[in-house]
Design brief:
The chain contains 8 helices and 5 strands; from the N terminus they run βββαααβαβαααα. It has about 240 residues and is an alpha/beta fold.
């Protein structure tokens, strides 16, 4: 069932955020499983609680994932399964805006895990720090919006290291820096933030539609022309997915 959205006039500094990070055996729920969950609950920039657990994925951890995260088959062998862990995470995040860096990745795994465990996905209000950073950071300040880049820029107390709780802590610090910047731009409430992000999304959709239209017109103009190795047609650009 949906989690009731906070009132639009609530100040961002008065909101409870549950910042979540997952480690997994793959890049989508179809070919991967969760190995670790970390979450930090913050309000007004103050950490009010943490949640962390390894998860037995029920499948071998690929060598490439072991090398990236340090999470091995031995490490998760005695860990509880998702059916044991998820109810606790949902209770921990109850009443919060769910935050993640590249949120579609984490949410896709969590929603799929709830379905597999017979739990209703609460459909939290969600804030993606990647999208927020792209909106409030100046182009010459950072080369990208990866978690490590933003954590260094904002001087996060915890460096992200591809472990769930550390990355959740780093994301929480990044969120605090981004909210401070929003305040400088006159964005103080949830409603103002929603308006900002909705306008940004509309502008991005309009730009993508214009690019697609230009691509179609270019394709029509070259119909029947011979395409050789020296002929380069413009590609339709899609929204980038940032993997921290």
């Amino acid at each position: 069932m949906p989690v009731p959205a906070p009132p639009e006039d609530v100040a961002l500094t008065d909101l409870d955020f549950a910042v979540v990070d997952l480690e997994t055996t793959g890049w989508s729920p179809e070919d991967g499983a969760i190995t670790e969950i970390g979450a930090v609950r913050v309000r007004g920039g103050v950490r009010r609680g943490e949640f962390a657990s390894l998860v037995n994925p029920g499948t071998p951890v690929p060598i490439s994932i072991e090398e990236l995260t340090g999470i091995t088959d031995w490490l998760v062998a005695a860990a509880p399964g998702l059916a044991t862990i998820l109810p606790g995470l949902l209770r921990f995040a109850d009443g919060c805006v769910l935050v993640a860096h590249n949120a579609p990745f984490d949410l896709s795994f969590l929603a799929a895990a709830c379905a597999d465990c017979g739990l209703a996905w609460p459909r939290f209000p969600v804030l993606d720090t990647v999208l927020l950073a792209r909106e409030v950071m100046e182009p010459d300040e950072v080369p990208d919006c990866k978690l490590g880049t933003l954590a260094r820029f904002f001087g996060a107390k915890t460096a992200p290291n591809h472990r769930a709780l550390a990355d959740a802590r780093a994301t929480a610090d990044v969120l605090g820096g981004l909210i401070e910047r929003l305040g400088r731009r006159g964005v103080h409430t949830l409603g103002q933030l929603n308006a900002l992000l909705e306008a940004a999304a509309a502008a991005a959709a309009s730009a993508e539609a214009a690019a697609a239209s230009a691509e179609a017109e270019a394709a029509d103009g070259t119909a029947g022309a011979e395409v050789t190795a020296d002929t380069v047609l413009p590609a339709i650009r899609h929204a980038d997915v940032v993997v921290a």
